[in-house]
Each structure stands twice: as structure tokens, then as C-alpha cells.
Specification:
With 248 residues, the chain is an alpha+beta fold. 25% of the residues lie in helices and 31% in strands.
Length: 248
């Protein structure tokens, strides 16, 4: 029996519970599986010639949705892990270890919605590691354990091959550039080796600073000089490559 079939079996147990029947924002386990699969496929890296996917996943649910699953949580996590393994095998994607999935309560998530986050368990910094869109990210296991989830995400919005690719902002300052030692490495000649730096403070305010780049850094169409405040949904352009900032 496939993992998807076993997840469907869990649905029968969950939907028969009175708390699920009374819920105004019902959430099926299959919806969680679909969001996780999309998160996995959106974060493929080419590593030593192999298309590799993250090993660590967190699913954030509103407390009402999380509570509905009750004692089925651990079983659902196990079957979601198996489901990701099967999807990876079907698509020829490699993983350094069996996927780990954890469901978390998060009051910031609207009822009925699913938010998934993925991480690689080891440090990804060397120049031999490339995303299929020409980008790499540097995330270590220590950072994963220290941070409950990213504070923001930078998503490419206007470049064909890279459109939709996202960088999770996991530290402050967060460097962006072409060199492999950046937190977000962008393999694009329009980007300087050390192009810009995004930082945030304890109050949740974000600031962007250009690092004397060749082609400039722009926020909502205006070139910035020095450290400049940026806000959720602002358009950021690094040498012509467009990003959108999404604060968590």
C-alpha cells in the first residue's frame, strides 16, 4: 500500500471525529501532503551532479486545525515522511537521509491554511552545489535548531528560469551576492560578488543596504544609498533581478 493510500486511511479516522465535523475550517491530511510535496520540489539543489531535496520539514497549522488531529499527529507525520520519500523516488530526486516531518501549532497561520518550510540538514556553501535555477543557499543544522522558522522570504518574481525561487532569511545580517560565501548565492552576472545585505531588528523592522555593487540595489523602483528601511511586499531589484520580500 502506498503512503498516499495510508494517508487517505487516516482521513477516515479524522473526519469521523466530532471536533472535525464541527470545525469551520476543515483541513484534510491530503492538503498537507500536497503543500509538502510542492515545498520539496521548489527547493531542489544540484549537488555533485544529483538533484537533491531537503531532509527537514516543518508544517505550521493554526491551533484549531492542529488540535483536530489529536493523537493522530505522530502517525500523520510518519506517513507524510513516507509520502515525500515516494515522491522523490518517482521523480528521481536524491536525499541524504529519510525526510523528517514535524507538525507545529502556529497562531499566526490563518485557520484552514498550511505553511510548510524545508531545510537541508548540512551546510550548503561550496561552489559545487547549485540550484537548478543557478542559485544556492547556505543553511546549517545549528541554525535550523536555533530558529523556529524563517523571519522572511525573498522570492524571485521577474526572471524566467529563476521565477518563484525563494531564499529563507534565517539570520541578520543576511548577505546576497554571487560569491559562494553569501547567505544567498545568486549565480547571475548582473549581481556583484557581495551585492547587498538584508538585516532586521528585534521589533521586526527590515533594512536593506547596498554593498557598493556595480549595478545597484533598488526598492520599489528607487535606487538606494546606504541602509534603507524595507517592508513586507516591497519590490527589491539587485542589478535588475527582481525579488519580493515576504515577512513571516
Amino acid at each position: 500500500m502506498s503512503a498516499l493510500s495510508r494517508i487517505e486511511g487516516l482521513i477516515k479516522d479524522v473526519v469521523e471525529r466530532p471536533v472535525w465535523l464541527l470545525s469551520a475550517n476543515r483541513l484534510h491530511p491530503l492538503e498537507i501532503a500536497e503543500v509538502l510535496a510542492a515545498e520539496m520540489e521548489a527547493n531542489v539543489l544540484v549537488r555533485d551532479g544529483r538533484r537533491t531535496v531537503p531532509e527537514l520539514y516543518e508544517v505550521h497549522l493554526h491551533p484549531d486545525n492542529y488540535g483536530v488531529f489529536g493523537d493522530a499527529i505522530s502517525g500523520l507525520e510518519y506517513e507524510l515522511q513516507a509520502y515525500l520519500s515516494e515522491i522523490a523516488d518517482e521523480k528521481g530526486l536524491a536525499s541524504l537521509s529519510r525526510p523528517s516531518v514535524r507538525l507545529r501549532e502556529s497562531p499566526s497561520v490563518p485557520p484552514g491554511e498550511v505553511r510548510a518550510y524545508s531545510r537541508f540538514a548540512d551546510v550548503v556553501r561550496d561552489s559545487s552545489v547549485q540550484n537548478v535555477g543557478g542559485m544556492t543557499r547556505a543553511v546549517s543544522l545549528a541554525e535550523i535548531q536555533r530558529l523556529a522558522h524563517p523571519v522572511a522570504r525573498l522570492t524571485v518574481t521577474g526572471d524566467g528560469a529563476r521565477r518563484g525561487y525563494a531564499f529563507d532569511v534565517v539570520r541578520s545580517p543576511f548577505s546576497i551576492g554571487r560569491a559562494p560565501d553569501n547567505d544567498a548565492q545568486v549565480d547571475d552576472l548582473r549581481i556583484s560578488r557581495r551585492h547587498a545585505e538584508l538585516s532586521f531588528d528585534d521589533a521586526g523592522a527590515f533594512y536593506l543596504r547596498d554593498l557598493d555593487s556595480s549595478n545597484g540595489t533598488f526598492v520599489n523602483g528607487s535606487r538606494i544609498r546606504g541602509e534603507t528601511p524595507v517592508r513586507n511586499r516591497d519590490r527589491i531589484s539587485l542589478g535588475g533581478l527582481e525579488f519580493r520580500l515576504a515577512a513571516r
